[in-house]
Amino acid sequence: MSTEVLVVGGGLGGVAAALAALRAGRRVILTEEHDWLGGQLTSQAVPPDEHTWVEQFGVTASYRALRDGIRAYYRRHYPLTGPARAWRELNPGAGWVSPLCHEPRVALAVIESMLAPYRGSGRLSVLQPCAPVAAETDWDRVVSVRLRHGSDDVVVSAPYILDATETGELLPLTGTEYVTGFESQSDTGEPSAPAEAQPLNMQAVSVCFAIDHVDGDHTIDKPASYDFWRDFELPFWGGKLLGWRSPNPRTLEIGERGFTPNPDDDPLLVRADQRRNPGDGNLWTFRRIAARRLFTPGAYASDICLVNWPMIDYVLGPAFDVPDAAEHLAAARELSRSVLYWLQTEAPRPDGGTGWPGLRLRGDVTGSADGLAQAPYIRESRRILAEHTVIEQDVVKGARYGDAAGIGMYRIDLHPSTGGDNYIDVPSAPFEIPLGALIPRRVDNLLPAGKNLGTTHITNGCYRLHPVEWNIGEAAGALAAFCLDRSVPPRAVRNDPDLLACFQDRLEAQGIELHWPEISGY
Known about the structure:
Blueprint: E1 5-8, H1 12-23, E2 28-31, H2 61-77, H3 82-86, H4 104-121, E3 124-127, E4 131-138, E5 141-149, E6 152-157, E7 160-163, H5 170-174, E8 178-179, H6 185-188, E9 205-206, E10 209-213, H7 226-230, E11 245-247, E12 254-256, H8 283-286, E13 288-290, E14 304-307, E15 313-314, H9 325-345, E16 359-361, H10 363-366, E17 377-378, E18 383-384, H11 392-397, E19 404-408, E20 412-414, E21 424-426, E22 431-434, E23 446-448, H12 460-463, H13 466-486, H14 490-495, H15 497-509
Parallel strand pairs: 1-2, 1-7, 2-3, 7-23
Antiparallel strand pairs: 4-5, 5-6, 8-18, 9-15, 9-17, 10-14, 10-16, 11-12, 13-14, 19-22, 20-21
């Protein structure tokens, strides 16, 4: 097969990249290895992590269309109460992690609707499930990518190839230079970096799952590795991993979280804002994705809670670039099953008892046969050696870039790591996405379209979140289309002032903010 832009990976960055190239009139093939497009938001079942100003500014127009579409879908199809329907900033789950906590399948429906016109016109082909297995290169160009599609292999050639996979799978396949794990302080000067590079020291992987709480005993079979995980401790954790005590990410002080299924709260009073309240005091409402009281009586027998908690962070080994990566991913799923079994059987309750057998695994919500999320939430990818690498000092200062291709905002949020590190959680300033971070130092036609751009282990902690990943992908898709229009390579766009100005004008015209607003009177 051949096309103009090949996007490998159908997560948020991949979808945004495909949409940007399609809007520019290009033909696109988009591939995804899991059953659902949408990555973090759907197959990984992670409600969006967003900044304080997301309802006003600070995201691209197409990302806002996605958010608006999710709310419109609920209003159109769900039995909301009158007050919930009238809630302008409807938060269907009334979760505290985001002002838009929702069921993954709704995001999938909206993403599919955004892509539908291009599928109908024939300019977009989606290969699914489909994963890259090899690539052909010619000096500094990638000629084609071989993808495993069911029992067959498909070879796709394209002038521009975008890597939107969760772990930068195309980088080793194409020989594109990349880095993993911690860079050294001598390389980056970052205050939070170690003295020596640690390429296999990566953030924890998490396998999320959804639960509700209803009558009856819904206890799953005891996982084979349950005894191991029940007794597992980290030296900095303050107790066993399976417990309510854990470090505060920002202060590292040991605290105790609570867990109360279906609390007697008013979801209309929830105002999710991570700047003011992390919201994780009650883990049930922290990432709740359906608040029963927002729907007509009887529609939902229970809230639905999305489990993405500290205790499901798997730190015993990396998810890629090691021989036993598959075993680690399988073990991460076992950890999540063990957490569920512990919740059902042994978790301390506020009334002095143990376990909630009424907790029911909702695999129908996550769309998976085993009840867990279809895909692991992999926070950290392989990252290209880029023309410009974003470092901690840039983010803390809120550096401005002449080649800005978007903006984002989130704390530098690093979870415990495979090297035995505790949380690293550093305040950041509203930041920009430099175009140079999307351009490999050598390869001409391969672009990162997700977490695999030119960040460090440290700055990956704030460039990995949902709206930033979408912006990265959208900029990459727009760059590929622009380069096809002008018959120029990506690095020429960055390094030629006239081309850069034209490209940035195009980004702004399609609703990508390049700088944070500076408001003044007139």
